[in-house]
Amino acid sequence: MFETIAIAYEQIFAVILPALALGLISIGATRADLSIGRTAMAVGVVATILGLWYTLVVHLAKAGLLMPPAEFTDPPYALMPLLGGAFLLWALGRLTKTGRTILANLDPVHLISIQSLRLMGGLFLIGWAMGAIPWQFALPAGVGDITAGIAAIQATRAANRGDVNAEHLIRRASIIGLLDFVIAVSLGIATSPGALQLMAFDHPNIINAYPLALFPMFIVPIFIAFQMFSLDALRRRSTQTAPA
What we know:
Helix content is 71%, strand content 0%. The protein has helices spanning 2-31, 36-62, 80-94, 97-104, 108-113, 122-129, 135-161, 166-190, 214-241. Helix 1 (2-31) crosses helix 4 (97-104), helix 1 runs parallel beside helix 9 and helix 7 (135-161) packs antiparallel against helix 8. The protein has one domain. The termini are far apart. It is mostly helical. Keywords: Membrane, Transmembrane, Transmembrane helix. The chain crosses the membrane at residues 6-27, 39-57, 77-96, 108-131, 137-157, 169-189, 209-229.
């Protein structure tokens, strides 16, 4: 029963999150007055990468190739899509001329608003309640994601209202979100079968198995990249407004 819920949940957010990311790219390109061709190229490249990445992760997860290392000497395949995907998106945004132009025309509020979807982490609490996910992972990861989502919503509302503490709230939301990922990933490894399992031996985690593997391997990297973009946007704004 939980697997059916998880598959539907994952498929919904695997569409919504990339769509919002592509929407932000379009907004930044429009505000930068990029040509239609250049805008279409930027959106098309990212859409293609995300589509291929999703397909690859689904295939690898179903084949059981994204589990934590069984031995200390085994390659950390479970971390490669997570860290590699986040780095790839960051590189497209920060190391390409078009990416830098688009990001320069997006406000921090645009970039933090996407984090409101972190409320999707409530699925982990549902999994715990249904006996599918160990509490050692589900409780901190679920509560952490919901907290990060609420913080992003608060920051977005404050920025839209023009509150004086809006930038502080955006920075806080980004830090909360990144800390949540560190905790969730660490506990995901510590509760999953493998050389690094430290707990939940009687009820191992299934976060690296299909369909839940799509969260850390596809959805989380997108969130991480946009949180880095958000913090960088705040840094640029602080530099631009700093007194000479």
